[in-house]
Write a structure and sequence with these properties.
Strand 13, helix 10 and strand 14 form a beta-alpha-beta unit. Strands 3-4-5-6-9-10-11-12-13-14 form a ten-stranded mixed β-sheet, covered by helices on one side. A two-stranded parallel sheet has the order 1-2. The protein has a two-stranded antiparallel sheet with strand order 7-8. The two termini are 33 Å apart. 43% of the residues are buried. It has 341 residues and is of the alpha/beta class.
Length: 341
């Protein structure tokens, strides 16, 4: 059966026409699913009973609920454990910035990429999220806080480009003015380096921000922390970034987790700068999260300052990501992992 929330407006319209209903019904249903957050057909009060029964017989609506909620006493960051009907769960984080409210959302239940410093990969991937399940994270969080979410970062549990078709539909739907109407320029998508997915994303030619989880200046270091590098080494990844940038003309953000004694030397910074030469980019330094199941520790403040200076001396713009929600395990995968233990 077809999940109606996972269809784009164009696909939903075709579905409605194909079952012999009037075209305008697609607009009514899309509004219920993406603006009002309907969880069942009975919620749709402007649909006739016969139509609801017809839809129930041939389709369904993806559902989700808030299982757990934590609010940081330090900065107001909110973390949700979002549950689905099959018993699986993901994490969604709401962060407040001066420019608006940002939601960090998940794209898969678990992750198969195996990055050593990330709690999301512990236990591997369970399944992909449907596009409707991805957007439900926003709907539930927005309804709970009673405020509009204006920015999205796809940096939660899962690798978005390992679930490309569902993520593609999500991007189309979340931008649709008949739905949540969040502008593409307010969306960032983070990938650990799935090269074919980057090329597919470039074909969409939408002005989102592409964030690359690089985390190392060379293949030797990157392969020890990120198994994906064995499939698509840095040279292939950066070539894909250049192809993406040639199409979209958008600046690319490179995420770099600062791991004590692993990738944080001044020479590492200089090598990174040489690698990124010729790419319009920004480096986002992230003091690595201390994950109980891993043995990595974050770099100290002086090391990070020296790293930034080496990048800036080479003409690379770099900043340190603000840490939010540290008292509520706000980093992706930590809350879900605690639940599974």
């Amino acid at each position: 059966m077809q999940d109606l929330r996972s269809l784009t407006y164009t696909e939903l319209e075709k579905f409605i026409i194909d079952i012999g209903e009037a075209r305008f019904r697609a607009g009514q249903i899309f509004s219920w699913l993406h603006q009002k957050g309907a969880m069942c057909f009975d919620d749709m009060t402007n649909l006739s009973k016969p139509l609801k029964e017809k839809l129930s017989a041939i389709s369904y609506i993806s559902r989700a609920h808030i299982e757990e909620k934590y609010v940081s006493k330090l900065d107001g960051t909110v973390k949700y454990l979002i549950g689905f009907d099959d018993g699986e769960c993901v994490e969604t984080v709401i962060m407040r910035y001066h420019h608006g409210i940002t939601a960090c959302i998940s794209s898969q239940v678990g992750c198969r990429m195996g990055c050593r410093f990330c709690a999301s990969t512990i236990g591997g991937k369970k399944r992909d999220l449907l596009s409707g399940e991805i957007i439900l994270q926003l709907i539930l969080a927005q309804n709970d806080i009673g405020e509009r979410i204006s920015n999205i970062v796809m940096m939660g549990i899962g690798e978005p480009l390992d679930n490309f078709e569902n993520v593609k539909r999500f991007l189309i739907n979340v931008n649709d003015e008949r739905g949540l109407n969040i502008g593409y320029r307010h969306i960032s998508l983070s990938t650990c380096g799935v090269v074919p997915g980057i090329d597919e994303l470039s074909k969409m030619n939408i002005p989102i921000t592409l964030s690359i989880s690089l985390h190392a200046p060379n293949d030797e270091i990157r392969s020890t922390t990120m198994p994906v590098n064995n499939r698509w080494p840095i040279s292939e990844l950066l070539a894909a970034c250049k192809r993406y940038q040639a199409v979209t003309t958008r600046r690319i953000s490179f995420e770099y987790a600062m791991i004590d004694g692993v990738n944080d030397s001044t020479e590492n910074a200089r090598e990174l700068a040489r690698r990124l030469g010729g790419i319009m980019c920004h480096v986002n330094l992230i003091p690595v999260n201390n994950v109980a199941e891993r043995d990595y520790k974050k770099s100290n403040a002086d090391t990070i300052k020296r790293f930034i200076k080496a990048l800036e001396d080479a003409g690379i713009v770099a900043t340190v990501r603000r840490e939010l929600g540290s008292d509520i395990s706000a980093s992706c995968g930590q809350l879900r992992q605690k639940r599974l233990v």
